[in-house]
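Regression report. Comparing outputs from two consecutive submissions.

Submission 1:
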Amino acid sequence: MKILIMVLPGSGKTTFAERLQPLHNAVWINADKVRNLTQDWDFSENGRIRQYERMRIYADFEKSHGKIMICDFICPTSITRKNFNPDILIWMNTIKEGRFEDTNEMFEPLQYFDFQITIWNDIEHESIAKEILNSNSHSLTTQS
């Protein structure tokens, strides 16, 4: 299974992924950690495509070996989300704008998602994480 947790920087993607990973014995790949390993902090259009490809290739490889994959990264366009082809797409819709204007400008609204988190509540992160994989619901809103 391949889970994509995505949206703008500062939305809680990494925090949520970090909580979800141990609850499901999953492999977690974080975009910033991948960029750090490759020493590639290029955020040009080509740099973003290269990063997306790294994330997709690694996730597909691990998934093909029967692992649950959790990937957290911006994945700002509908074509990258489609090509990433997650089994579960989680939209951390907790902020209206991120801290980087160029990312805000290129971000395309989602046409489809499996789960949407609209209010981040750090106290309830474990129960939310469990519900994501066990729920038939397509929208989760937590109370602050």
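Submission 2:
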Amino acid sequence: MLRKVQVMGLIALASILAPASLFAQRATRRPPAGIAGCYKLTLGEWSRPLGDNAGYHAIPSTVRLDSARAIRGGWRALPDISYPTPNRLRGTPSWTAPRDTIEIMWSNGFQSTTVRLGRRGARELRGSAIVWSDANEFGTDLPRARVTARRTACAP
């Protein structure tokens, strides 16, 4: 009987706390101040060849970090990406700002590219691009390249 009471108490406690924790995770946050805007991207050399799927990991010359919410969380990113086939993972491209970094991600649903950047002054972000594939053709040695993002005027 005591065990049943303990289980019922645990269920009651969970039902009281769960809505608060779910609400906290879904709370709408604003993007970090001074980040939204347009950036010109410069890509260094990849650490290893990208193979047949290189077209899915092309780094756009410019990206707009929007302040509108993205479907999968974070905010919309508007890079000029043209995949070899028209697939695109719903809710991407998008960007988030965990801790002191900015992460921009786009994917066709099978191949993804993530660009992680940190602030370097008022007009520049630096970091790296990392690619991933659901076919795991890269193993644990994922291709990486240095990326520099410099603020630029947004095209109309």
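Expected: both submissions complete independently.
Actual: both completed, but the second showed a warning that disappeared on reload.
Relevant detail on submission 2: The longest strand covers residues 124-133.
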